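A quick aside before the break. I want you to see a complete sequence-to-structure record at least once, exactly as it would be stored in a machine-readable document. Don't worry about memorizing anything.
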Amino acid sequence: MAQLESALSRRGEQLDELYAALAAVQASHAYRFAQLLSKVGNKLLPLHSRRRRAVRTALRSGVRLLKRVTGRNVAHIAEGGEGTRVALDQAQYARWIRSHEPPELPRAFSRQPMISIVVPVYNPPAEYLEELIASVLAQSYPRWELCLADGASTAAHVRTILAGQTDPRIRSVTLAENRGITGNTNAALELATGDFIAFADHDDTLAPFALAALVNAINEHPDADFLYSDEDKLDAAGQRVDPCFKPDWSPDLLRTHNYVCHLVCLRRSLADRLGGIRPGFDGAQDYDLVLRAGELATRVVHIPHVLYHWRLHAQSTAQNTASKQYLVAAGQRALEEHLVRAGCAARVAPAEKPGEYRVRYLLPRQPLVSVIVPNRDQVQTLGRCLESLFASSYANLEILVAENGSAEADTFAYYRDVERGHGVRVLRWDRPFNYAAINNWAAAHARGEVLLFLNNDVETTDPDWVEAMVMHAMRPEIGAVGAKLLYADGTIQHAGVVLGMGGAAGHVHLCFAGHDEGYLGRLQRVQEVAAVTGACLMTRAEVFRTAGGFDERFVLAYNDVDYGLTVRELGYRVLWTPEAELYHLESKTRGYEDDPAKQARFRREFDLFRRKWERALTAGDPYYNRNLRLDRADAALRA
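That is the input. The structure line, written in tokens, reads:
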């Protein structure tokens, strides 16, 4: 109770500050002028008009063209948004480093495996190679060997540096010729005798506790055979910048780009099964390795510590992906072959950024999708929702409206129109509103192989949004799929649910501009999440039945999150896709939690959720790095 009161007090202070800031903004001339422009714009381009859609499409096309021409993210210029709001101040990151590093690790380990660090070498600057070697020598864990294979470097300092190493744990070989990054890495692998193999580049460095953190994870997870960590970058001055705090193992996110990257460590037996680095994938050899390792690994473990520092310089892919454009084709081929091995009928296309991809899963047939829309009056709102469905390019839809307590004659007249004109089925639910119960009841009347739960205040202008969700929902390993939902002003309402945010569960990237890339680009990438909102939730009927439907104790809040967690406990994954984009006029039908009865009901459901999922809340959201704050939605670093 004391903690809750303290949190409530902080919220009150923050709210007062926000009200003050808002009042100052609203009093400014700039705000009044912007309001005038907004009114004029809305009058000329009404929200749901074809003119507005046409202008928006043209702007997006222009943005894409500008990105290709300039290589810069200019979406915020074209659409008036704020751009990426998660840029990290260097001083803030420096404070985080001082507070969180080194991490608390055991001083002794019951299992002490030998770690072989393999490094391909070819003409690195002398200071970079020396710093790499020094970072390995500085490791707090002593059982390691550094295996370097020099691909006949033409720079004389390389051989001098390698020959000058006196520590017996450093082993090197000079090849007769440069075999490229693949051949040089495999030559380094031949020197390795360790139980685990870690991969590093010749111009990067390891954190001094990197190997200790790896060994700690190996002791905590004895079956782990594939481990990876968080990372950051070293700028030209050698300062640490741009930290990358990753999610736990996320196969679908990996199919959009190599988010795993560094530091990667494989059990020796797995590395042997993989046959090392495959030739023919230079530029994307790491991506190919990670994809193949993920297919065969018994257990993949993410270590949420920054163990690797990736060097930024003109020739590195960290600094300039365009400097190695050939990686795009190699990465696409690696991903295509991975999908074939996984038995997925799919097409791969490059995304806008080099090294990123979009996977289109092919449907051999169009399963019947039953769309369930609870409704109480609000004819105009419901009408726009159903018009979105009528305009969908997906041909095999069954639309069910779960009528609950409407009183207006226009509502029933509209029902008769859509029943006759579009074959909509209107089902009468004559009990007090309970979101979980009404959807469970309607699902029992649905004939579809796939269920789509949709709020009546959701609408879209994109005709192929249903396909974008169905192609994932029909994959046997996927239990539920959610969409990118925007408020009427184009800002983010839903981009996946984070477990633990706000004390129970919350929406990440809330109120970001709709075109924003988000933290680590995640607003633009298909990815695993803990749960998705029930405002637009797709799931196979068989999964829904196996999960027992929605828990009807959650009358309004948390039933969708509870469903997502239940589905995951059954062994399925929950996906969020930005390729299905809709508007959600949240709470227009049911209103807000603005009276004592609603607030008491919400409190009961909040407490029930925390009791039911106490263990999951304690463990934390696997797809949201524990170094990010849970008291705000912008992926800010923990203090």
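Two observations worth writing down. DSSP finds 21 helices and 23 strands in the chain. The first strand starts at residue 115 and ends at 121. We'll return to this after the break.
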